[in-house]
Task: inverse folding
């Protein structure tokens, strides 16, 4: 389907399938009944999985056990109108690094901005955000009414892996989060 920031409706998807079928076989005006049934089933399964994932995410946030490990290879937003690049986590949180205006190339960030997904703002409001970097937890601050939390990083902090963030109280030390060595 053509790239678009808004998810397409199911009918748009079926229409797109029909267009592709017409391009491949000019005699066929509509998607085959099999293609339509398969597309509907796939759409329903995707919707069910998305709902279950959202329910589990909400349960983790409510219980105070939300932790997400961050990989620096995570997707960055492609919004060219945005002045501040941000790392997007698999669950929709966005993390932006802020640098000193007079900082040299390659300098460590001086602050972080964490934005929660719009559909979780009410649930996350008032919860503390902590970042794991360089083997230490750094409290960023509470999520505000706009779903954002901003906080300074300690001067001279080594901004190196492992990286992660927690919404809610810290329940473990960084060494408790490390994966056991494979034997």
Result:
């Amino acid at each position: 389907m053509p790239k678009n920031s808004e998810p397409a409706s199911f009918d748009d998807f079926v229409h797109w399938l029909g267009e592709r079928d017409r391009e491949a076989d000019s005699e066929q005006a509509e998607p085959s009944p099999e293609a339509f049934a398969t597309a509907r089933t796939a759409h329903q399964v995707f919707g069910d999985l998305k709902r279950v994932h959202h329910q589990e995410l909400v349960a983790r946030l409510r219980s105070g056990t939300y932790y997400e490990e961050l990989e620096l290879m995570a997707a960055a937003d492609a919004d060219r109108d945005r002045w501040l690049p941000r790392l997007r986590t698999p669950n929709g949180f966005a993390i932006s690094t802020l640098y000193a205006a007079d900082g040299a190339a390659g300098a460590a960030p001086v602050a972080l901005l964490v934005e929660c997904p719009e559909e979780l703002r009410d649930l996350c409001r008032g919860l503390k955000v902590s970042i794991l970097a360089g083997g230490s937890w750094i409290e960023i601050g509470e999520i505000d009414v706009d779903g954002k939390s901003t906080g300074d990083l300690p001067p001279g902090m080594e901004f190196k892996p492992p990286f992660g963030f927690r919404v809610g109280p810290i329940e473990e030390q960084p060494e408790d989060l490390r994966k056991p060595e494979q034997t």
About this structure: The CA atoms of residues 129 and 167 lie 5 Å apart. The first strand starts at residue 66 and ends at 70. Strands lie at 66-70, 87-88, 94-98, 111-115, 128-133, 136-142, 148-152, 163-167. Helices lie at 10-24, 33-63, 121-124, 174-177.
